[in-house]
Design a protein that fits this description.
Chain lengths: ~180, ~400
Amino acid sequence: MAENLYGLLAEFDGPDELLKAAKDSYAEGYRKMDAYSPMPIHDLSESMGYDKHRVPFIVLICALLGACSGFGLQYWVSVIDYPLNVGGRPLLSWPSFIPVTFELGVLFSAFGALIGMLILNGLPRPYHPVFNVPNFERASGDGFFLCIEAEDPKFDITETRAFLESLKAKKVDDVEP
Amino acid sequence: MATKSFDHPFVDKVQQRGLLAGACGVVILFILAFADSQQFFQSYLVSYIYWLVISLGCLGLLMLHHLVSGRWGFVIRRLLESGARTLWLMAVLFIPIALLGMYHLYEWTHTDVVAKDPILTFKKPYLNETGFYIRAVVYFALWLLWMFLLTKWSREQDETGEPGLKSRMINLSGPGIPMFILTVTFAATDWVMSLEPHWFSTIYGLIFVIGGALGAMALCILWVIKLKDVEIYREVDAFKYLSDLGTLMFAFTCLWAYVSFSQFLIIWSGNLAEEAPWYIRRSHGGWQYVGIALIIFHFFLPFFLLLQRAIKRRAALMTVIAIFMLIMRYVDLYYFITPAFGHGGASGLYRYVADVLTFVSIGGLWLGFFAMQLKGVPLMPLHDPRMAETFAGEGH
């Protein structure tokens, strides 16, 4: 039974209890876990060890890529492929290239931020086991949940259940895969 | 929040030292002014505009705060009000320029030059002494009126807690913003752009508006860091908003780059004989290096530094960045104003002495005056009804 389980889902009374439970579980050594709450809770993701922010790095790379392609496109068009003499200005008139370079940098960063966020979050995700638990929909209403996943090396069906109950969980449910 | 006016040794120190430096500086400047009036007024104008623009930036941000609310605004409202109240001082310090300086600074005040120059003759209905005086009086009257009412009502709100004062401040700030942008644009045109009376640029005033907001924000950041242990700041954990203030400084840095580059791009694209000389003058004789330094240090460096949240939360780094930005504000204005004088004025040591002395004396007076305004009042508004809702729901 245990090896078929996705994990254990504990429900808590409110944001403070959930935050405390997440901190305690992390201190206990659990790593593969996730918290579900109707609203953002300050420090919650940091308390579970999600302290790496990789989206900014993706955005930076995309911004540089966008700026380079914006400048490169204009350079190729106006210097190499179709050189035109406009008012005697040099072909490489960089001041007039800046707006498009900037705009493409912004465009690429916006795409990078959105798509990078979705990929890193594993979205879109049509199926997730936690929804097998009745009442889990309340995570978008008034429910505060912490799920410790079976993949966690420290996971043990009885011990973990006892541990979650010791954190004053209202209710602990098995999550079918 | 029952804390009344606060006492902080640093504020007293700034007040004493600032006023002392200002007073000593004024005496020395008085002597310098007789030694070489032309150079004196050239240096005086740069320093005066630098501090004036920060006062105005405080007034503009104060009105913006009333209109958009937000926690950052309540944290720095008293600093902005004190900054705006230095406009009294700046109005007095304008008198030397108006009485004597304008004949040394602006060539359109010389009737023989105007008579020989068809463009200046054409512009005479606007660029003449009477118009200059009348407009200066109007600008200061409007700025002082808005500043006076906003700070007066804010103090009354502290004392009485009358809820109607909130809407009065909001209603005054609404028309205040267009009034502010128009008057600053015209003032920048009169006092700085007309140094090169053939040249014109319509985005010019906006560069001053945004530069002022940037300078004011940098100054507020320094004060918030310095005063973070004051009780009323500890109660709301003012330090937490350092990163918001840093983000706003970042925004104004970007906006400064945007408007400065827009002016350059339009003039570069137009390539017209009456517009281009402004940049030609500023890209020769060493000025080109100042221009490149501005691009790198007034934009790219703060841009990449202030992008990072980790930096915006560290007081030591933010202090360095804010001081750096205040220095770059001076470089920017120096680059705007000084090349206009061409080869006129003294060269070498005397020029730098005059630059530094005017900056220190006006700055000393400004900071002393600022500290004096700040000292008597609670560091944050006490009874603004918007504060309860803004600071509610903390933590989650």
